[in-house]
Design brief:
Blueprint lengths: L7 E5 L3 H9 L3 E3 L2 H5 L3 H6 L2 E5 L6 H5 L6 E4 L9 H6 L3 E3 L6 H17 L1 H9 L2 H5 L12 E5 L3 H12 L3 E5 L11 E3 L2 H7 L2 E4 L13 H7 L4 E4 L8 H10 L4 E4 L10 H4 L4 E3 L8 H19 L10
Parallel strand pairs: 1-2, 1-3, 3-4, 4-5, 6-7, 6-9, 7-8, 9-10, 10-11, 11-12
This protein binds NADP nicotinamide-adenine-dinucleotide phosphate (NAP).
Pfam family, one: 2-Hacid_dh_C
Protein name: D-isomer specific 2-hydroxyacid dehydrogenase family protein
Organism: Oceanicola granulosus (strain ATCC BAA-861 / DSM 15982 / KCTC 12143 / HTCC2516)
């Protein structure tokens, strides 16, 4: 069968209303970039926009197989899978979906922090497995209010996390590349080691990608210490994961709440053997309402590009 020709190639797992809305824009669907790269020359030659919903690396080589490509519209705020420099060099624009997911991702960070500190996974199992009746009360957990939270990366999502944790009566510390305007009483740290040394909960809300690879390294983990907890909703690459696993196993770090992993969806088997971690399958923005808003914003970018209008949320 001839490959279908269309302006818009939708790459990734589109379903339901999102898929229908892209179909209405005339999009042709591909499971991944391999399938798009393998499409016939005419089909590839027609593509002006890739509506991207995948974490596979989108590099210059695949861009070169799409000679009319003008826009990569990412479904997600994190665009670390896209080689933005390669896009820029080819005059390809990139957009993302900022802000509409801030609340959900921040909620998840706070939820994992509370779950880890209050041992909620174990509590749930304690009831389900009948241990409550057989063994009595569970071991005591840790109080959250009054503790110190450190936000590593006070960007859009980081700020929402900090605001929530302030409402939970934690003392707020943060690290960004520059000091920001914040409510009175928040403490700025010029580097992540200083932040880690000052707090109980270390919450990571950085961008991913090569510039932040291993930003949270063995030195940061050591500074956080045996009472410290890491929460990560950003990307698996920002932490030296094996250093974190070593510390969790040896009791040099109290615990972690993690939504993102290196090599996900394959997750290091060492995580599953740990009792002091809360693990989630990259669900920061995974509510029906927010995914619908992300899809709508992605399509607004696609439509603006096709109409020759200003892009609503450009990256480059
Ligand atoms: P944002 O507003 O751009 O904030 C990003 C933060 O990263 C800022 O604090 C920024 O520092 C910091 N940063 C950027 N480049 C850096 C560098 N080279 N070195 C050190 N710090 C750097 O982004 P956002 O909208 O809050 O999103 C943050 C990330 O969350 C996304 O990129 C994505 O990876 C992740 N995310 C995850 C989920 C999930 O499902 N778990 C969902 C959505 C987003 P400054 O403050 O110094 O500018």
């Amino acid at each position: 069968m001839e490959d279908e020709m269309a302006d818009v190639a939708a790459v990734g797992g589109y379903e339901g209303e999102d898929r229908a809305a892209l179909e209405a824009m005339g999009a042709v669907f591909y499971d991944d970039l391999g399938a798009l790269g393998d499409a016939g020359e005419d089909a590839r030659g027609a593509v002006r926009v890739v509506a991207y919903k995948h974490h596979q690396p989108f590099d210059g080589e695949i861009m070169d197989r799409l000679p009319q490509l003008g826009l990569i519209a990412n479904n997600g705020v994190g665009y670390d899978a896209i080689d933005v420099d390669a896009a820029k060099a080819r005059g390809v624009r990139v957009t993302n979906t900022p802000d509409v997911l801030n609340d959900d991702v921040a909620d998840l960070a706070v939820a994992m922090l509370l779950m880890q500190a209050r041992d909620l996974c174990a509590g749930d199992a304690w009831v389900r497995q009948g241990k409550w009746a057989e063994e009595g009360a569970m071991p005591l957990a840790r109080k959250v209010a009054g503790k110190r939270a450190g936000i590593c990366g006070l960007g859009r999502i980081g700020r929402e996390i900090a605001d929530r944790l302030a409402a939970f009566k934690l003392e707020i510390h943060y690290h960004s590349r520059h000091e920001k305007e914040t409510p009175a009483g928040w403490t700025y740290h010029a580097d992540p080691v200083s932040l880690a040394g000052a707090v109980d909960f270390f919450v990571i809300a950085l961008v991913g990608g090569p510039d932040t690879e291993n930003y949270v390294d063995a030195g940061v983990i050591e500074a956080l210490g045996p009472e410290g907890v890491i929460v990560n909703i950003s990307r698996g690459t920002v932490i030296d994961e094996s250093a974190m696993l070593d510390a969790l196993e040896a009791g040099r770090l109290a615990g972690a709440g993690l939504d993102v992993f290196r090599g996900e969806p394959q997750v290091d088997a060492r995580f599953a053997r740990l009792g002091n971690v809360v693990l989630q399958p990259h669900v920061g923005s995974a509510t029906g309402e927010t995914r619908a808003a992300m899809g709508a914003l992605q399509r607004r970018n696609v439509a603006a590009f096709l109409a020759g209008e200003e892009l609503p949320t450009p990256v480059v």
